[in-house]
Amino acid sequence: MKDLIMNNKYKTQAEKYEYISKQHGGYYRHNFTDHAYLYNLYFPPKAVFIHLKDTIHNLVLNYPMAQDALSELIGEIIQQPTERIIVGNGAAELIKILSKHLSKRMIVPVPSFNEYVNAAPEGQVVEFPLEFPSFHLDIDKFAAEAMKVEADIAVVVTPNNPTSLLVPKADLIRLAQKLGTHNCMLIIDESFLDFADDNDNITMEHEIHNFPNMAIIKSMSKAYGICGLRIGYMLTANSAFANSVREEVPIWNINGFAEEFLRILPRYKQEFEDSCEKVKSDRDIFYKKLCAIEGMTVFKPDANYIFCRLPDSALSGPEVTKRLFIEHNIYIKDSAGKTQPDATRYIRIASRTNEENSKLIEALIDVMYLKK
Fold it and tell me: Does the pTM exceed 0.85?
């Protein structure tokens, strides 16, 4: 049975592409392979869905808990004191509070997750270009620029989106120390860190008590595969900063399904860790296959997606993205909207199952060049 939305919104595959490329979700309704959005395909386990189904009556009919109780649930998961945690309706809610309401001057390395810039008032964000073509973050230059523009908030996404590159923990500690002498909060977005190797030793969560000018943002949607539940959190040992963010959060910002998920999540710690290992295994195989494409520059990923520069003789990123969708019903992201040199030559591909990744490789080779 054809989707009613499809019949109403588009008639051809090309029209379908134009419609989908303007959306920010709901992809499952439109029958294509999503190599664009970034989430864990192997979590949650079936038992979580059964539990939510069995408790749906109470979850729908009753008010969810407020911020203090929600923070306690997150605290149990990450082993941190409740007063350090603010729970958001996805990380996006917290990012908007930081960018739009709290920051007077924010500095963000680019290319990066666009929402930090998009949520801020015009002219309030300084974009700091990553080293090109390595996309490495030079900590000393970044700190110097933050001080020069008198930024009160500096953002580092690690692993970065779209590059999938990690910023070393030692660099982040040094950056926090530098910014701490200039009254600048360092926001570290670790939304994809669960897919990095040795993630428990490289997270800054264990160091948070040492740096009052540091806060960590974490979207749980990506790692836990729960995009529709919308859960994120901020962690900081700076009580004044925590209270400033908390004051901007609505009293009931998290629905009952998200609350219940947090309540039962500790039961599935091993399943979650196993799922992340499976994601990493699939990604590593995918990376090697992408590297085998002649002329393709493939950045070694630390997250569950891979950043690539297309061969010079290939079509542009936007053209390849469109042809992949129209001819193979596969959706990826190009970097045309990112602030970076040569942006139209780059694409970002989410890793899915080995079978789907292999199909993507074949399709990509098929559409990269104009057929003679």
Answer: yes
Instruction: Going residue by residue through the chain, which has 372 residues, state the pLDDT in tens, using 9 for 90 and above.
Output: 344 445 568 999 999 999 999 999 999 999 999 999 999 999 999 999 999 999 999 999 999 999 999 999 999 999 999 999 999 999 999 999 999 999 999 999 999 999 999 999 999 999 999 999 999 999 999 999 999 999 999 999 999 999 999 999 999 999 999 999 999 999 999 999 999 999 999 999 999 999 999 999 999 999 999 999 999 999 999 999 999 999 999 999 999 999 999 999 999 999 999 999 999 999 999 999 999 999 999 999 999 999 999 999 999 999 999 999 999 999 999 999 899 999 999 999 999 999 999 999 999 999 999 875
Q: Which residue ranges make up each domain of the chain?
A: 4-44+270-367, 46-268
CATH of domain 4-44+270-367: 3.90.1150.10
Look-up of token digits 């990012």: 95
Helix axes 317-328, 354-367, angle to 10 degrees: 120
CATH topology of domain 46-268: Aspartate Aminotransferase; domain 2 (3.40.640)
Residues 6+ positions from 343 with CB-CB distance below 8 Å: 111, 317, 335, 336, 337
Q: Return the number of other C-beta atoms located less than 10 Å from residue 229's C-beta.
A: 21
